[in-house]
Structure formats: C-alpha cells, structure tokens
Design a protein that fits this description.
Elements (H helix, E strand, L loop, with lengths): L5 H10 L16 H24 L10
Amino acid sequence: MIEIPQIVEELYNQLVIIPEPKDWPEYIGGNARVAQNLYSFYYGLRAGFQLGGALREEPFNPFEE
C-alpha cells in the first residue's frame, strides 16, 4: 500500500469542508460517506481548475464557445 504523506492529510483536514447533514442535497439521504466523497471530489475539482487557471496566460471560460 502506498503511504500518503502527512501534508496531504493536513491539507485535506484544512481545505475540505463537509457541511452539516441538514445542508446536504436530499438525494444523499443522510449517507455521510457519499457526502464526504462528493464534497471531496468537488473541492479537488475546484482546486484543479483554480490551479489550471492560474497557470494560463489568458483566462479560460469553457462556456464562451
């Protein structure tokens, strides 16, 4: 098994925010694992887009085509 560096765990705990169950979409149905996976994916995707945007010379908007 690959060992995950401690910094990754620390960043995860600081950056990934899991909202209160009352704020989850109805289709999650109170399933904490689904909520954590969904929000982790969302924040990772958002961070990736922000990083990609920071490296571009011109702003990228996929909806401007």
